[in-house]
Amino acid sequence: MGVPGLRTYASKKLVAKHRLRNAILVIDGLSLQQDLYRRHLPKGGSAQPFGGDYNRFAATVEAFFRALLQAGVTPVVIMDGSVPPEKLATKLKRFNAQLAVSKAVYEGRPTGGVINALLNPELFVQVRGGDVCLF
After folding, report:
1. Are 125 and 134 in contact (CB under 8 A)?
2. ∠ at Cα 29 (80, 71), nearest 5°?
3. Among 4, 66, 73, 89, which is most buried by a count of CB atoms within 10 Å?
4. pLDDT digits (tens, 9 = 90+) for 58-94
5. By the 8 A CB rule, do 135 and 78 touch?
6. What are the tens digits of pLDDT across the range 21-52?
7. By the 8 A CB rule, do 32 and 100 touch?
8. What is the rounded distance in angstroms from the CA atom of residue 18 to the CA atom of residue 15?
9. pTM for the predicted model, two decimal places
């Protein structure tokens, strides 16, 4: 769930671009899965308003891990476990936001939100490949 605004701050102030090679990289699996899902969507929104489009998402995940492995980077992916009590309110807020987007799509109203397909986490785990450590 992280620190609000940390990604934006880090991308503008702290992160320098460089080529990572021959290293071990620890990755927040849920965050990566959601980021890759948003990246694979066509510009301007989702081609599948109710989520899904699993073939394209699988290709995006495969390409990401293939690029890491080709660079000699060993990805170690940590998937979320249970939600600690102090983060439950944030989790519920995000869940309610997903419900609001789903309702708007169902009613045919335009929405700027993205509906995360239900099977994305399972697909992400399956597609990541045997060379990727998953915890």
Report:
1. yes
2. 155
3. 73
4. 888 899 888 888 999 988 888 876 777 888 888 889 8
5. yes
6. 888 988 888 888 888 887 777 665 544 555 56
7. no
8. 9
9. 0.68
